[in-house]
Clp R domain-containing protein (Actinoplanes nipponensis), 209 residues
Amino acid sequence: MFERFTHAARDAVVRAREEARALRQSPIGTQHVLIALLADPAGPIATAPAISSRKVDARFVRAEVERRVGPGPEPVVPGDSTEAQDAAALKAIGIDLDAVRRAIEENFGPGALQLPLAAAPKRRGLLRRSRPRARTSGHIPFSPRSKKVLELSLREAIRLKHNYIAPEHLMLGILREGQGMAVQILTAAGVDPEQLRDDVTRSLGNQAA
């Protein structure tokens, strides 16, 4: 039976929220989860041959997300009272946001999750207006697709008879969901989803060996 997220998987979920916050975007989408999974250049996702052979990394995906979506109108301010709703939901599946933040700062120093804010978009002229953005201050919810990815990562763990969820399971969840911006960016960059699925599954097998 499923027992818990690994520390690395928990870190990735928290990092996804911080990526959305830094990019001034809401909700937290599959693309933010992908950036978080690629944040560790020595991690199992960044080093998967299907990814590394195409030189796809967190910086590349972040730039693609900015190009496709653009930043919101203002910085996202943490600490909104409604954030407790998502925090409680995540805690129910073994992710304590506050505990993970503390652990990351203990290992990497205070402010390790405070990513630089995305630069404001350049004005294109007096008669050209940028598309309106939803306000993103305070609580940032998970999109239906990213919630589905969390659910599918659990299903992948069960399918593989694992009693934990690691970053690889999150990646498998992204691939299994198949319609989010994360997969769109990967396929546009020439990443073969089937090869990536094989790479990630092999990585999990190597850990179990």
